[in-house]
Amino acid sequence: MMSHRFASRCVVFGMVAVLLAGCAGASRRAKVAPPPAPPEPFAELVVTYLPTKYIVVSTIGGQNVQHMTNLGSAFGAIGTLAALGAALAVDKAAGSGALVERTQQLASRIEAVREQDPAVPDVNKALAEAVAKQIAEVQPALRVVVEPDAIFAARKPTAGVGVLTVETMTAYVSASMTDSYRPAFQGTYTFRVGEQNRLIRKQEYALRSGTGSSDDEYLLFDSLLADAAKVPGVMQRLSMGDVKSVSSMIAGMYGLAQSTVPSVATAAPVAPANAVAPATAAR
């Protein structure tokens, strides 16, 4: 079995190479890429959401997660996610599995709590519904529905339909052996449109850490695990910070698409088109 130090170096060096290559590639593309074309007109928007996943990251097993997350933060949203994922990969490769085990423990406990109490929110579903509601209010002529991504993915892309996929990273992070576990949230939003399922935009927002309340922080993992019923609510509060920005982005895309086709732009809006359908609504 590879040593812990060797595994750590492999993952960290690999992550640095990927991040640097990504930044260099992005820089080159920024110089030569033409302005993005507006999306084709769409009369319906389906907001889909992936299952909410919870991650626990700390210095358990000798990992210096603080250095890794600092490195990731230097490269923005993608780098932060890569750093947190690398911390789990190092832990698993080194054979300790402490972080992986704790991640599984927290996720299992939250799932059990949600099964017993329907009032405990599904973070991604609640975020998708909030975004859909805001979009429908801004663009009343646009029909907006919400569905789990697993259900919608079974269908073929359709002309005139836009798809906004909500994916999040929800974590409790402890940067040192003496640091508390603090909540962290990051959202990724992918917008595609039309029969060709053309990618229009993928937006990743910066990691937000902490709520400003000590009640949402835990010195011990056992305390966090015992209070698992609170975690979805904490993450939901953090996620709501994305609603306005995401809804404005999509509403702007809709307006831009409609303005490129005069016959569509001047068409009379259908009054009930802005109803936000629940995830179980019949289509």
TrEMBL record:
It comes from the Bacteria. Residues 1-26 form the signal peptide. Keywords: Signal. This is Lipoprotein. It comes from Cupriavidus campinensis. The lineage of its organism: Bacteria, Pseudomonadati, Pseudomonadota, Betaproteobacteria, Burkholderiales.
